[in-house]
Amino acid sequence: MSELKLLVVDDDRDFAEGLAELLELFGHWVDVAFTGEAGIDAANGCDYDAILMDISLPGLNGVESLQRIRQSRPDVPCFLMTGYSADEIARQGIEAGASEILTKPLDPESLEQRLATVGSDP
User: Fold this and answer.
1) pTM of the model
2) Phi and psi (nearest 5°) for 12?
3) What is the CATH number of the domain that holds 88?
4) Range of the structural domain that residue 28 is part of
5) Least C-beta-crowded within 10 Å: which of 21, 40, 69, 74?
6) Phi, psi of 35, rounded to the nearest 5 degrees
């Protein structure tokens, strides 16, 4: 799989930095943001291949942040992540254009398989 430019957005710094390190081990280039607002700024400032964003963020949550990102970056794949079952917010995330809702803890092999589909033509 080729190197991807990825953005991880999660207010849990340990999780975000750990996920970034894992993705870098897979050969990807990764930026990290810790709030929805910072994620929006980062997404507008760089042409990412995909975004992994926590649903539960302080300030703007993941769904609200995704909706704003979609205004300027309508085609970037975005995977929303959650540590709990929240059917309503997950539904909102899919309606906002999330590629998929991922449940934490993330399985590294499964995540890499999902990322392998980013940018590939069906």
Assistant:
1) 0.90
2) -85, 100
3) 3.40.50.2300
4) 5-116
5) 74
6) -140, 160
